[in-house]
Batch of 2 targets.
Target 1
Amino acid sequence: MNTHYELPLEDAGYSFGFLDEYAKKEVRRCILKAIAIPGYQTPYASREMPMGRGFGTGGLQLTLSLIGADDTLKVIDQGSDDSVNAVNLRQFVQLTCPGVAVTEKTQEATLIQSRHRIPEKALTEQQILVLQVPYPDALVVVEPSEARRKVMHGEADYSRLLVKLYEDVVRFDEITLSHRYPTRINGHYVIDPSPIPRWDVPRLHQSPALVLLGAGREKKIYAVPPYTVAEPLVFDDIAFRVEDFRDTHGRRIACRCCGSTVSFLDELIDDAGKVTHQCSDSAYCEEQQETISARKQA
Ligand SMILES: [Zn+2]
């Protein structure tokens, strides 16, 4: 598969990275503050971008402020490099950052912008992961006032969030949150880790790669710096668990394309109502398939 895109676009006349240098400098300063106070929602002057808020403008501003001509960018949406949102964002970066290489291979990328997933392949110290965030504040479900939420964050008072999780346990015998699982960073601030599935939450813990989260509409940047403690909020007697993808016989379901039994799966239902499963991370799935076919040829 061709992993490098050619765009038939002339020089569009934008400054490198679309944003002006002052805007980029401000975003970078906020990134440094976010790294210095892990999990703290740093306010920043989110710029108008030539796309609707809610389409990844927060992540895009982080990416454009960080990217240099020698970077290699990967953009994914729900694990796929080919979805409309991912393609649009990637083309926009290519248009405004001439010389930047793009890739679908996780290991080749220096900068990865993602919505709803962390790549299946383990990230390294040489990589930065940018996550697009719709709702940056985990406390928003229990407290409508931002001023009060700020005090609660400052005092690390997450008791109401724990009550909310406890209500889940009482009603359903387990915590039913599938996405946006509240996660405590470095023992203090609880973040909304963006709509990644529970499966991805443990990978924030002691991640070698810097993880940056950007909310454009809400004008917030926060970070999980490399090798930082990231713990999902739990109770002593109810452990956090990730999706286990088992069939009715208790067997782990395999991906229908590559046969992987260790990846996060998407459920697909065809017209006849038949349910199948496939890796959510399309680059990972393709690589598994390539490995299998290479092994068969050998
Ligand atoms: Zn697969």
Target 2
Amino acid sequence: MRLLLLLMALCAVTGCRNAGEEKYEMSDAQLHLTAQQAEGRHLFNRQCRQCHEAYTTTKRVSFSLAGLYSKPELPSGIPANDARVGEVIVHGKRMMPATSLDQQQLAALLAYLHTL
Ligand code: HEC
């Protein structure tokens, strides 16, 4: 019973959300994003977030991109570098649709993904 009360109190304070969830509500400045990274964030929210989480590790249509570059490999086993990630973004991959970003937008998106 005491434990339950403690849990309820904790939920009231934290909203019982997944770790990382609060970052979605933070501004670009609060996240210390450069102008380029902020542009990438905007693109991500429009074109990627319906299928990939950025901050929580929850799986949506596909895996979360949190900590994408912190491991040497992506979940599929390909190296986590800009060349390979860029290829997936431009050409798509199986269930993932291709995107039509120009060079500047792609660079911004990759810069943002490095902040995750
Ligand atoms: C309609 C859903 C959808 C959208 C939108 C989408 N993706 Fe994906 N993404 C997927 C799926 C599904 C996979 C897994 C592809 C596979 O290997 O079968 C994937 C895979 C990936 C991978 C890794 C592939 C690997 O080899 O492990 C990256 C990186 C990625 N997506 C980034 C992005 C980015 C950045 C965007 C926005 C430009 C985006 N995705 C938009 C569904 C989506």
